[in-house]
Design goal:
Layout lengths: L1 H32 E2 L2 E2 L1 H26 L9 E2 L1 H26 L13 H25 L3 E5 L4 H27 L1 H9 L2 H15 L8 H21 L3 H17 L8 E2 L4 E5 L3 H4 L11 H15 L16
Parallel strand pairs: 3-5
Antiparallel strand pairs: 1-2, 4-6
């Protein structure tokens, strides 16, 4: 009788403690994934990139079976091919952003697109993108780091090419800015802080350029630093519009206006043709102006431009306001 009573007592004790242990385990597991503002920032960003990469991989697989590559000219960019590729990239990123916005119970446009002074910031970014690239090319020519010649293309053909490249590089800006300074940046900035988000995502942005055949170490570093500087613009304005304008105008000026190499790629049907001259540290070699040591003073100037012309936005980096019980 005594042993049986003790057994029953132990059994009751185990039964009563089991639900508590289960709840504790579930709470610990939930804490790993869920924070005060919903899904934790690190997991959210990981899921965002997983969705984006998954969509792009599926599109690439289908495209290879529908239209296998047939020895296109390596290193030559055409506007139509660029527009198609960047449409797919931008679409994948927007879909991933839309999906992840459901976790935060927000619109996908809340990650850098809904902001005051959108048109003003966009136009400022466009202006500084063209101006800074023109300044870099002027210094390269004056220091004998590059030569520039105007092509003999007709006016109507140039206008058509310029418009097509404008669309292409606008899409490049949308896809790359949305990937590294859209959902991922806003989410990491709210979960950690803007500095950590800028460093991590800019490092990723720089490393992504390693796949470009003509890239050099200076070009990789400058790509990462460009990411940091553009993150500063996003942090100052609370939106992507200035960065979108600058990114599109910089690439358009470099590739279409000056016909310079961009990480080994040269745009077809450009207005001018640029050729590297002198030592690679000055000219950038195959990487083009972005691989030149002159790019680092240019980045310093760009940082000053952002600090002096863009007032700081007091908006807090919060993905979703806490709901009071």
């Amino acid at each position: 009788m005594t042993e049986s009573a003790e057994f029953r007592g132990t059994s009751k004790l185990d039964d009563s403690s089991s639900p508590t242990a289960d709840r504790s385990a579930r709470a610990r597991f939930k804490k790993i994934w869920i924070g005060p503002n919903g899904l934790r920032a690190g997991w959210a960003v990981f899921l965002f990139f997983a969705i984006t990469i998954g969509l792009l991989s599926a599109i690439h697989f289908i495209a290879l079976h529908i239209h296998p590559p047939h020895g296109e000219n390596a290193g030559e960019l055409t506007p139509i091919h660029t527009i198609i590729a960047e449409c797919l990239m931008a679409g994948s990123v927007i879909i991933a952003t839309k999906i992840m916005s459901l976790f935060d119970k927000k619109s996908w446009m809340d990650y850098g697109l809904r902001a005051p002074l959108r048109l003003s910031h966009l136009m400022q970014g466009l202006f500084w993108g063209v101006a800074l690239m023109a300044a870099v090319m002027a210094v390269l020519v004056l220091t004998h780091g590059a030569t520039i010649a105007v092509t003999s293309t007709g006016v109507l053909s140039l206008i058509k090419s310029g418009l097509l490249w404008g669309v292409a590089f606008a899409l490049v800006a949308v896809s790359e800015e949305f990937v590294c300074r859209g959902y991922a940046f806003f989410t990491l900035a709210s979960g950690t802080n803007a500095i950590i988000a800028a460093i991590l995502l800019s490092a990723l942005f720089g490393m992504a350029h390693h796949q470009n055949a003509g890239e050099n170490p200076a070009g990789l570093i400058s790509a990462g630093l460009f990411g940091v500087v553009l993150s500063l613009a996003v942090w100052r304005t609370g939106s992507l519009w200035w960065a979108l304008g600058f990114h599109a105008a910089w690439d358009w000026s470099e590739s279409f206006v000056f016909g310079a190499s961009d990480s080994g790629n040269v745009a077809s049907d450009s207005w001018m043709l640029s050729h590297a001259a002198g030592p690679d540290w000055l000219s950038g070699g195959a990487a083009g102006p972005e691989g030149s040591m002159l790019i680092f003073p240019a980045l310093a100037v760009l940082t000053l431009v952002i600090l002096l012309t863009l007032p700081r936005n007091p908006k807090r980096w919060v993905r979703r306001e806490r709901q009071l019980a």
